[in-house]
Amino acid sequence: MKLVLAYSARDEFMEPSKKPLNVLIKQLNSYIGVTLKNNIEYRGIMVHCDNYMNIILDSAEEYNGDRLVASYGRALVRGSNILYITLAFPQKKSNNMT
Hints:
Layout: H1 9-13, H2 20-25, E1 31-36, E2 40-49, E3 55-64, E4 67-71, E5 74-77, E6 82-86
């Protein structure tokens, strides 16, 4: 019986500081934008991220395009639903829902 281990050659040669999860963890306590596969976006201060890229946002806001839909105190975004993450996202001062 032959055992085959699957691995990504890209990960083998990537510096540890450049891996996506490490880059994300360095953004703790920063304002970020998280776009989901359904094109809904959540923006807030990332206070936690785990190995599955589940993210906890404080002062979270839900956007549909540029329109603010809802504001939450704290929100959990499941990593498997994330399409992409925007780091160093400019924080809006307005809390007006339109």
